[in-house]
Amino acid sequence: MRQVPGVSLQRKLLLWLLLPQLVLWLSGGFLAWRIALQNGEKGIDQTLTQSVRALARQIKPVGDGLLVDFPKAAQDILEQDPADRITYMVSSPPGRFLLGNAQLPAPPAQPITLGEPLLYHAQVDSRTVRVALLEVDYGSEPARQRLRVQVAQSLTVRERIAQELLEQLLLPMGLMGLVLSALVYAGVLRGLQPLKRLEAQIERAGKRSHNAADPLPPIELTSAPQEVYSLASTINRLLEAVARGQQNEKRFLNDAAHQLRTPLAGLIGQTELALHESHEPQVRERLQKVLSAAQRSAHLVHQLLQLARSESNVPMQPLDLPQLACEVAREWTAKALAAGIDLGYEGEEQLRVLGHPLLLREALNNLIDNALHYAGNGATVTVRVHITAPGTAALAVEDDGPGVPAEHLGDLFARFWRGSDKAGGCGLGLSIVDEIALRHAGQTFAEPIAPHGLRVGISLPTLP
């Protein structure tokens, strides 16, 4: 099942660090708004309390009536701001209008303490106002009466003060939020730098390894947090274990192939000698089968040895690829003529690449052997060296034989895969070619030829 990468660690850290900061910033703005409203209301309450007491002192009993000593100048001051006017109402007994604004509503249903102001909210002309109420007694017994004084002020001032305070707070809070966000972003980037260095080092190590079979060098970090050091140490232990497993596999493959070569050579020699000395048809038929099986086994051993060598560390050197291809093609001329196949070379006269001569010879030997084996009698096999793109050359062998179905082209370079049941192959030749191509920082390719045939080869980087 293909794994889909999730959200990056950097995004997760930024999300979990900046999102709480945004929540705190919004919460701080809301709390600042609420505190500003509360403080504005406290200021209004103090003003109304002083006003209602002062107004109550201006009402004096005279005989059976009341004298309101409220100058016109004071009334004009209270009502000078239409948007935020302070209104009042005097009633005696409570609720019976005497003076002021008759629209002031009655207090809520709750006990009223004589001589203590009562503060409450009310609606006047579709506006919310804050009302201060004070009740006092006047007159003498038994004709003592109660007087109610109400002073109201709209909450416009409170809201305006809160808005101004919030606007003054939002700018420094926004700047602080931006600075903090920048610091968090820079801190996350700096904190993830060791992981970036670790990734870059692993990528450089992979690029230095021309083959997947090469052991990767250990990861070295000069300075990194403890968690990254632990991760690097774990990866190094894993790389060491993989390298040991690869070395053991190569050693076993090499040793097994070497141990098998001598007895197989002896078996082939003894079988050929027995065939030469035997004249009975049945015995010769059985000996011929033994000889064919022994030759296939010897070929398999040889291929396994070449595979082990192709996966080992080898030095590279500049070489002339067309010259190498011509030499290998001439070495196969005799065998091609014996098989009734026309073998030739076409392509560049001179082209330099960086490679290992023995490995490239082995790759071309396998390509030619594969073509001669499957092309069939009367076919034409051509070795080509040509430039496919700037800085890239192709070493290919093409034939006009039956070819390979398009759906199996991708399987040609798989180990032990064979395109037919024809005797003589073991399914490792093209796999070795693929290993050698990877060793030379190149890649293999296989493509059909019209009307029939196959072109198989490797692409290699050229030298300037």
Write a structural description.
- There is one protein chain.
- The protein has 464 residues and is of the alpha+beta class.
- It has three domains: 11-162, Beta-Lactamase, CATH 3.30.450; 209-313, Helix Hairpins (Orthogonal Bundle); 315-461, Heat Shock Protein 90 (2-Layer Sandwich), CATH 3.30.565.
- It has nine helices and 14 strands.
- The radius of gyration is 50 Å and the shape is rod-shaped.
- The two termini are 43 Å apart.
- Residues 255-464 form the Histidine kinase domain.
What descriptive keywords fit this protein?
single chain, five-stranded mixed beta sheet, Beta-Lactamase
How would you summarize the topology of this molecule?
Layout (H helix, E strand, L loop, with lengths): L8 H49 L1 E4 L2 E4 L3 H7 L7 E6 L5 E4 L17 E7 L2 E12 L6 E10 L1 H53 L17 H52 L3 H30 L6 E4 H11 L1 H6 L3 E6 L4 E4 L1 H19 L4 E10 L2 E8 L29 H11 L3 E6 L5 E8 L3
Helix pairs in contact: 1-3, 4-5, 5-9, 6-8, 8-9
Quick summary:
Keywords: Kinase, Membrane, Phosphoprotein, Transferase, Transmembrane, Transmembrane helix, Two-component regulatory system. 51% of the residues lie in helices and 20% in strands. It is α+β, with helices and mostly antiparallel strands and 464 residues long.
Helical content stands at 40-55%
Question: What's the overall average pLDDT, rounded?
Answer: 79
| Main β sheet profile | 5 strands, antiparallel
Please give the CATH class of the largest domain. Answer: Alpha Beta
What kind of assembly state do the chains in view correspond to?
single chain
Q: Count the domains.
A: 3
Q: What is the radius of gyration?
A: 50 Å
Count of beta strands = 14
Strand order of the largest sheet: 4-3-7-6-5
Alpha-beta classification = alpha+beta
Series of secondary-structure elements, N-terminal to C-terminal: HEEHEEEEEHHHEHHEEHEEHEE
Supply the number of helical segments. 9
CATH topology of the largest domain: Beta-Lactamase
* Gross CATH architecture of the largest domain: 2-Layer Sandwich
Low-confidence stretches: none
Taking the alpha carbons of the first and last residues, their distance comes to: 43 Å
Beta fraction of the residues? 15-25%
Global outline: rod-shaped
